[in-house]
Amino acid sequence: MGVFGGTFDPVHQGHLCTVASVRQQLDLAHVLFVPAARPRLRSVPTASATHRLEMLKRALASEPSFDVNDLELGRDGPSTTVLTLEALQYDYQETPICFILGIDAFLGLPQWHRWTELLGLAHFVVMSRPGMVLPVERPTWWVRAETTDLSIVHQRRAGSIVMVEVPPMDVAASNIRERLRAGDDISRSVPKSVIDYITEHRLYGFDF
Fold first, then answer.
1. Domain ranges in the chain?
2. Topology annotation, domain 2-169
3. pTM score of the predicted model
């Protein structure tokens, strides 16, 4: 099972296409998208949790292998990955969990809450772009856990780091919000169901 977290403010094609690539490469049964309430290391989301959750549900409605889990939205305090993975391990006791994240986020892992416990709770699937150069000097915990054997995520419950190349997607939620405020077309970057929701609820400061 894959797990992909984020603010999804709003969810866009970059999220959907890269995670679809990971799911296919690792032959994951399904992927849970987990929207954060208040990210500990990022700015407060622009749209409310209710709006972000509904946009995510609409974006994933036609994807049978994708689902939404809102456990972080019902938790007090900042959203932390360690608590989320602990909860998911309890709920899916026989299922290996693959936590999917981008290389930029992965490089900041030592800043995460209780980060040394994370590899004991899941495999880390790190998305990178073709041609991206990784650090030459890698810490011991990274070297010991990294593997090129993608099948390992089906054989063990947690503990491995797998690097996966995904298609380059030049799209970011912050850029989409700016384009909305400027009245630009975002139809190639955001699913129509999400655009319709943004329009209906007049999100992101644009007067439709």
1. 2-169
2. Rossmann fold (3.40.50)
3. 0.94
